[in-house]
Amino acid sequence: MLIFEEAFEEIAADETLWDAQFAATDAAKLDALIASVETEINEGKTLAMFDERGEFIETRIARIACD
């Protein structure tokens, strides 16, 4: 078993927690979050994670996040 593999039961329990969290989330707050993300993207304030071929683009920020 790989270190990051999860058993079916663990995955099912995790999915149940996510479902409960999303069900309890205020839709208006999610809409506001989506709008703010779309604004950042449209204003060019984000960096692409993948190039036009779908290859991961390594950046200084990506290296820091993986450390």
Shape: flat
* Biggest beta sheet attributes: none
Q: Total number of β-strand segments? A: 0
Poorly predicted runs: none
Gap between N and C termini, in Å? 24 Å
Percent range for β-strand residues: under 5%
Q: Percentage of helical residues? A: 55-70%
Sheet/helix structural class: mainly alpha
User: What does the radius of gyration come to?
Assistant: 17 Å
Overall pLDDT score: 86
Order of helices and strands: HHH
Put simply, the count of helices is 3
Report the oligomer.
Answer: single chain
Structure write-up:
- This protein is mainly alpha-helical and 67 residues long.
- It has a domain at 26-67.
- It has helices spanning 8-24, 27-42, 60-66.
- The mean pLDDT is 86.
Per-chain topology:
Elements: H1 8-24, H2 27-42, H3 60-66
Search tags:
single chain, 67 residues, mainly alpha, 3 helices, 0% strand, flat
Short synopsis of the structure:
The chain is an all-alpha fold and 67 residues long. Helices cover 60% and strands 0% of the residues.
